[in-house]
Amino acid sequence: MPALSDFSLASAVTAPSVGHPLTPAGTRLRSDPSGTRATIRLMPVNITVLNHGPIRIEGDFQILDPAGAAFGLAGRTTISLCRCGHSANKPFCDGSHARAGFSDAVAARDLPPPKPKS
C-alpha cells in the first residue's frame, strides 16, 4: 500500500474505507500501515439532470438497491441513471432515450417547503 503522501485525489476516491467515520463534509479519515492517520479530501458528488437524457452522477458515491445492497460499479466515478424508463439495464442508462425519442428539457427551480410530518 502506498504511503499517505503518495495518495492522489483519484486514489483517495477509489481506495476502500478503513472504517473511520466521515469527518467534515467531503473528507474521510484514513490510516496507513504504520497507524498514521490523515484526512483525505474526497471528490464532491455532483448530480446533473441532462436535457432529454439521463441523470448523471459524478464523484465518490454508491448506488443501493431497495434492500441496501450496493451495485458493483467497477471503480466508476461517473454513471448515468435512466430517466426515460426504456433502458434494458435499469436503473442505469443505456442510451435508449435517444432511440425512444425521450424529450424533457430541464431548468433548475426551487422546490416548495416540505409538508410537515403528522
What would you call the structural class? mainly beta
Helix fraction bin: under 10%
Give the ordered list of helices and strands: HEEEEEH
Question: pLDDT below 50 for ≥5 consecutive residues: which ranges?
Answer: 1-23
Which term fits the overall shape? extended
Oligomer: single chain
Count of strand segments: 5
The CATH architecture of the largest domain can be named as 3-Layer(aba) Sandwich
Q: Report on the biggest sheet.
A: 3 strands, antiparallel
Strand order of the largest sheet: 3-4-5
Level-1 CATH class name of the largest domain? Alpha Beta
Mean pLDDT: 79
The CATH topology of the largest domain corresponds to Ribosomal Protein L9, domain 1
User: Count of helical segments?
Assistant: 2
Q: End-to-end span in angstroms?
A: 51 Å
Features:
single chain; mainly beta; Ribosomal Protein L9, domain 1; 2 domains; three-stranded antiparallel sheet; 2 helices; 9% helix; disordered N terminus
Q: Summary?
A:
The protein has 118 residues and is mainly beta. 9% of the residues lie in helices and 19% in strands.
3D architecture notes:
This protein is mainly beta and 118 residues long. It folds into two domains: 4-41, no CATH class; 44-107, Ribosomal Protein L9, domain 1, CATH 3.40.5. The chain is built from two helices and five strands, in the order H-E-E-E-E-E-H. A three-stranded antiparallel beta sheet has the order 3-4-5, with no helix packed on it. A two-stranded antiparallel sheet has the order 1-2. The longest helix is centred in the N-terminal third of the chain and has 6 residues, at 9-14.
